[in-house]
Amino acid sequence: MLIKQISVFIENQSGPLAEVCEILHQNEIDIIALSLADTSDFGILRLIVDKPELTQSTLREQGFITKSADVLAVSMADKPGGLSSILQTLNKENISIDYMYAFVGKQDGSAVVVFSLSDLEKALLVLKEDNRTIINPRDIYSL
Fold first, then answer.
1. What is the tens place of the pLDDT at every residue in 42-53?
2. Could you tell me the fold of the domain covering 71-140?
3. Residue pLDDT, tens place only, 83-124
């Protein structure tokens, strides 16, 4: 139930982000979600894509530094309090959040939150026990 996320380290200047996106376009790789964090010198582009292995190998061939990581995608109500209730569940179990980002899916009334957590396996169990909808990797691409 864990999703593969590809992180790409890019220089913080004009061009590299456009280059990554063009490489994905040329290889017919669909971006499902993304997050971009930056420092003064470089950025970390985090991608959920429909072809993670191809994405990583293709970007590496083009000289980009990439890393693959497991993350958890959780569906939530797209309304006030939707995120808060998930965070409360994780907090009760002392599961810390490394980072997270969200996107609105194509399903009515829902959003998806992508989590990098201190203990992914424990979080998976806790959230399932709390009747949360964990997005299956094969389903993430149809959102």
1. 899 999 999 999
2. VC0802-like (3.30.2130)
3. 999 999 999 999 999 999 988 765 567 889 999 999 999 999
